[in-house]
C-alpha cells in the first residue's frame, strides 16, 4: 500500500466533518472502508496515534499534524510533537 492513503486521510480530516465524526465513532470501520485503502499496518498506526511510525512510513508531517489539530486518536499538539521527536531520535 502507498503512503498516499494516509496523506489523503489527513487532508480529508480537515475538510470532511462527516469523516471526523466517523473516525471518532468507529475508527476501525472508518479506516478500513477509506478510499484509497490503507494497509493494516497503517490502520494500526493511525488508531494508535503512532505518528512516529507513520512518519517513518513516509507520511507528510504537515498533514499528520491535522490529526492532533482535531484531537483524533488520542493526539494533541504536545503528544504529536513528542511522538514525532521520539521517532526521529537517533538509535543508540
How would you characterize the overall build of this protein?
With 92 residues, this protein is an all-alpha fold. The longest helix has 12 residues, at 4-15. The protein has a single domain (4-88), classed as Orthogonal Bundle (Protocatechuate 4,5-dioxygenase, Chain A). The model has no long low-confidence stretch (mean pLDDT 96). The protein contains seven helices and no strands. The N and C termini lie far apart (30 Å).
Topology (SSEs and partners):
Layout: H1 4-15, H2 17-25, H3 27-32, H4 40-47, H5 51-57, H6 61-69, H7 77-88
Helix pairs in contact: 1-6, 5-7
Silhouette: globular
Structural class: mainly alpha
Uncertain segments: none
Radius of gyration: 12 Å
Q: The CATH topology is what?
A: Protocatechuate 4,5-dioxygenase, Chain A
Count of separate DSSP helical elements: 7
Distance between the termini: 30 Å
Helix content: 55-70%
Mean pLDDT: 96
**Quaternary assembly:** single chain
The CATH homology group name: Dioxygenase LigAB, LigA subunit
Strand elements, count: 0
Topology order in helix (H) and strand (E) letters: HHHHHHH
How many structural domains can be distinguished in the coordinates? 1
Tell me the fraction of residues in β-strands, as a range: under 5%
Largest sheet: none
**Overall CATH class:** Mainly Alpha
> Under the CATH scheme, which architecture would be assigned?
Orthogonal Bundle
Amino acid at each position: 500500500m502507498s503512503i498516499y492513503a494516509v496523506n489523503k486521510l489527513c487532508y480529508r480530516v480537515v475538510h470532511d466533518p462527516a469523516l471526523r465524526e466517523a473516525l471518532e465513532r468507529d475508527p476501525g470501520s472508518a479506516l478500513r472502508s477509506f478510499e484509497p485503502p490503507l494497509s493494516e499496518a497503517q490502520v494500526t498506526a493511525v488508531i494508535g496515534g503512532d505518528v512516529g511510525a507513520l512518519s517513518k512510513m513516509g507520511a507528510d508531517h504537515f498533514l499528520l499534524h491535522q490529526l492532533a489539530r482535531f484531537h483524533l486518536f488520542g493526539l494533541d499538539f504536545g503528544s504529536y510533537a513528542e511522538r514525532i521527536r521520539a521517532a526521529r531520535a537517533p538509535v543508540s
